[in-house]
């Protein structure tokens, strides 16, 4: 394997990880830091007239939010700015905010990390994130069209090897690279293998223009780097030329730019064709602070058995990996007639019980009819990946798109099944079949001798529990705004926007590893995938499917990835503070959902791991002695990884939530009331009395209690924050979410929560690096004028929770 330098590449498993275990999944997540990117909240009104949008009448006398966003971007970068409004933009039904996603183009080619998310309400820009490239467009002496007809003859083969060897030994000054200054003995052996092919290996002459690397060379070199272990990497190197000669490169068209695009077939260790498209990506300028340079790159989408990579390999340096995100995180049709009412029942640990130690199983039924209109076991025929004849679907003959009712753990939101052999295939894996009475009732046998590495004796229960928990997560997140338009996971979207065909594939007792779990989140319209493992940390072994907190953590990767930067962008939470918050939100929601009105500290993964303190450094606690984490904790050794970063973020959110609970009280249920027959959501005991605007339109409902309010604000904040957010961006997005929902009445308590753990207004990060380095400073003060005269975080009324 090509050596990886710790200071240039973050090698981390994006999973709910305890440490190194047998069967651990290798994952690459790495990329440059954007010095100019941040969330911007204008201090005054920024309406259409303020940036030159003319006074033209529209239906309802309101401007199209996309038109507002486009004009606003032009006001920032000039009328000649080249960009497109992404199709995954949408209006949030909960807040009335339009989330418009803008992608930059240079020379007709996408800048894949050049994003502006513009948040618009009532014709005004209320906030925006901006990571556009600010420099001049580069020029290249090359002909991209020549790449569309690659010829894998011996001359082409030698040229590819020459390009690889030349760039392998080169380390561009001030640029990130995966190669050391001097090759190791292992690398020298590899170079000797290349030279054995009797190919010309001369370097480019000084001043000679760089040439585009063949995309198949870039893709194969990435596979060498991403190989699951050293043996596989060594085998790829040894047979490098043979692999290169067998690749089939098929020209295709980019849907978003004029750049060349190809599909590369027969790539080793992949589960499908590798897609390659020419694009730009930014890196920090080596000499100028707060400036970036553009790099021409091959944008690769690489499906592998244990990973789904979006990678950017330099298009002029065959070995240079600029950035990579692993979508796996260690996760229009007429509406058919309503099915005949079938009430499935499940003998499981009900919602709110984290694991088998917290209570007994019970028979439950029901689902949230607002979130899952047809229940958990039905979908239109057009939305099903295949018709499982063993599931005995009932097909109304008069329906053009018949509704299929399944008697297994197969439905519109979730496909749950065993995966004991750890295979990539899943459609025909074993699922419990409840028959016509739809009673999922199976024995729990934790004390019998397990077969091989899995507690197979209660496999049907495991699959049923996973199916139940994942569907409950779908439903509750839906009620807080993770709906079809914002990119949730459903096969059929009921004509409500977004892309369907992306229910979550849930593997119970996955045989590809143990003592872990992970979640793959591709862009909207592609299935999410959750893999749950058995844990051998206790005797008898424990099944992660039975610990709800682990399932919630993994599913929450799908929530945060789809909401941050838009449903079509899965690359916003790959590394550093952004990647860490992707882990932290999962812990926060898992802890919030299991918490009760009687306060206590909570550990993460404590049952499965058989550790009272769980799999994090500390329990989540209001007590500084129990959990001393502050923002500056991220500077300590051991806090460079995303899980450790996420632990600090989750702890801060836990403080914020409990400050809201201290003021607003605690709700015993986090599920809002279901909609009435006319579609209206009643206030019940869950929401405050409804408020109406001057036109009589009901404003977004406000959760009455602190824990439900915290859920809403955190989820709404994800939609407002920019791609690749910092802690500061996510904090400010939550504050703006409260401003939009309540008029900012909770600003004081939210600031107190953040400031209590060092994330006050003067907290800072200097010298930040892509992998989370730099020097941080805590700030325990409050913004002037927010909380009263003194603005002193110590001036709080006594409270039993704080």
TrEMBL record:
The superkingdom listed in its UniProt entry is: Eukaryota
Kindly list the GO molecular function terms attached to this UniProt entry. Answer: metalloendopeptidase activity; zinc ion binding
Specify whether Protease is a keyword of the entry.
yes
Sorted UniProt keywords: Hydrolase, Metal-binding, Metalloprotease, Protease, Secreted, Signal, Zinc, Zymogen
Q: What class of enzyme is it?
A: hydrolase
Protein's UniProt keywords contain Translocase: no
FTP domain span: 82-132
Q: What is this protein called?
A: Extracellular metalloproteinase
- Positions of region (Disordered): 761-802
Among InterPro entries, the record links this protein to: FTP_domain, Fungal_virulence_M36, Peptidase_M36, Peptidase_M4/M1_CTD_sf
Name the residues that bind Zn(2+): 330, 553, 557, 583
Q: Where in the cell is it found?
A: Secreted
The scientific name of the source species is Calocera viscosa (strain TUFC12733)
According to the record, the signal peptide region is 1-20
What Pfam family is a match for this entry?
Answer: FTP
The UniProt entry annotates the active site at 554
Assigned protein family: Belongs to the peptidase M36 family.
> Which cofactor does the UniProt annotation name?
Zn(2+)
Of the GO CC terms on this record, one is: extracellular space
């Amino acid at each position: 394997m090509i050596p990886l330098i710790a200071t240039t590449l973050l090698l981390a498993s994006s999973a709910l990880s305890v440490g190194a275990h047998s069967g651990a999944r290798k994952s690459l997540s790495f990329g440059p830091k954007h010095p100019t990117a941040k969330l911007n909240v204008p201090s005054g009104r920024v309406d259409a007239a303020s940036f030159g949008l003319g006074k033209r009448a529209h239906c309802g006398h309101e401007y199209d939010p996309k038109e507002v966003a486009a004009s606003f971007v032009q006001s920032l970068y000039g009328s000649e700015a080249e960009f497109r409004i992404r199709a995954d933009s949408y209006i949030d039904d909960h807040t009335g905010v339009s989330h418009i996603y803008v992608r930059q183009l240079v020379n007709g080619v996408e800048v894949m990390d050049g994003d502006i998310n513009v948040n618009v309400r009532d014709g005004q820009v209320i906030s925006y994130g901006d990571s556009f490239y600010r420099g001049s467009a580069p020029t290249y002496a090359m002909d991209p069209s020549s790449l569309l007809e690659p010829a894998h003859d011996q001359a082409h083969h030698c040229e590819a090897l020459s390009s690889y060897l030349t760039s392998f030994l080169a380390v561009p000054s001030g640029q990130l690279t995966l190669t050391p200054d001097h090759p190791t003995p292992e690398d020298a052996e590899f170079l000797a293998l290349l030279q054995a092919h009797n190919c010309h290996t001369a370097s480019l002459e000084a001043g000679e223009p760089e040439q585009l690397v063949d995309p198949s060379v870039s893709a194969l070199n990435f596979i060498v780097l991403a190989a699951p272990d050293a043996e596989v990497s060594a085998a790829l190197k040894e047979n490098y030329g043979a692999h290169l000669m067998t690749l089939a490169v098929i020209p295709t068209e980019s849907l978003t730019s004029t750049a060349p695009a190809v599909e590369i077939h027969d790539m080793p260790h992949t589960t499908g064709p590798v897609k390659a498209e020419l694009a730009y990506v930014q890196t920090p300028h080596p000499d100028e602070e707060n400036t970036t340079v553009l790099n021409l790159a091959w944008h690769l989408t690489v499906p592998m058995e244990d990973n789904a990579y979006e990678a950017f390999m330099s298009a002029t340096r065959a070995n240079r990996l600029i950035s990579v995100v692993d979508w796996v995180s260690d996760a229009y049709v007429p509406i058919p007639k309503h099915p005949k009412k079938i009430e499935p029942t499940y003998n499981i640990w009900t919602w709110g019980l984290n694991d088998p130690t917290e209570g007994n199983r019970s028979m439950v039924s029901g689902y949230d009819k607002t979130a899952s209109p047809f229940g958990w076991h039905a979908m239109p025929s057009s939305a099903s990946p295949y018709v499982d004849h063993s599931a005995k679907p009932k097909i109304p003959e008069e329906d053009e798109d018949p509704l299929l009712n399944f008697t297994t753990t197969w439905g519109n939101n979730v496909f749950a099944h065993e995966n004991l052999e750890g295979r990539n295939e899943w459609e025909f894996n074993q699922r419990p079949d409840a028959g016509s009475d739809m009673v999922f009732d199976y024995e729990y046998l934790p004390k019998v001798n397990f077969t091989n590495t899995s507690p197979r004796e209660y496999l049907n229960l495991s699959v049923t529990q996973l199916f139940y928990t994942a569907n409950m997560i779908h439903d509750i997140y839906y009620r807080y705004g993770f709906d079809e338009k914002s990119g949730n996971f459903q096969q059929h979207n009921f004509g409500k926007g977004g892309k369907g065909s992306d229910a979550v594939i849930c593997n119970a007792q996955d045989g590809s590893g143990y003592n872990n779990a992970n979640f793959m989140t591709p862009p909207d319209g592609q299935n999410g995938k959750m893999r749950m493992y058995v844990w051998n940390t206790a005797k008898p072994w424990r099944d992660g499917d039975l610990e709800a907190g682990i399932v919630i953590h993994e599913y929450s990767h799908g929530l945060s990835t789809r909401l941050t930067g838009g449903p079509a962008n899965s690359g916003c939470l790959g590394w550093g503070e952004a990647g860490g918050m992707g882990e932290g939100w999962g812990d926060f929601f898992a802890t919030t959902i299991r918490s009760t009105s009687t306060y206590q500290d909570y550990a993460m993964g404590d049952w499965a791991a058989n550790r009272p303190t769980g799999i994090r450094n500390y329990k989540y606690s209001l007590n500084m002695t129990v959990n001393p984490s502050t923002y500056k904790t991220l500077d300590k050794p051991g806090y460079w990884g995303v899980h450790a970063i996420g632990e600090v973020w989750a702890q801060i959110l836990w403080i914020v939530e409990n400050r809201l609970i201290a003021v607003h009280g605690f709700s015993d249920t986090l599920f809002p009331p279901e909609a009435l027959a006319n579609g209206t959501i009643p206030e019940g005991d869950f929401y405050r009395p409804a408020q109406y605007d001057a036109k009589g339109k009901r404003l977004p409902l406000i959760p009455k209690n602190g824990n439900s309010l915290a859920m809403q604000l955190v989820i709404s904040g994800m939609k407002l924050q920019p791609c690749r957010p910092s802690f500061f961006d996510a904090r400010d997005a939550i504050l703006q979410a409260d401003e939009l929902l309540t008029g900012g009445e909770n600003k004081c308590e939210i600031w107190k929560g953040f400031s209590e753990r060092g994330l006050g207004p003067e907290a800072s990060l200097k010298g930040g690096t892509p992998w989370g380095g730099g020097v941080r400073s805590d700030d325990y003060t409050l913004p002037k004028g927010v909380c009263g005269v003194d603005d002193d975080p110590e001036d709080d009324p006594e409270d039993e929770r704080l």
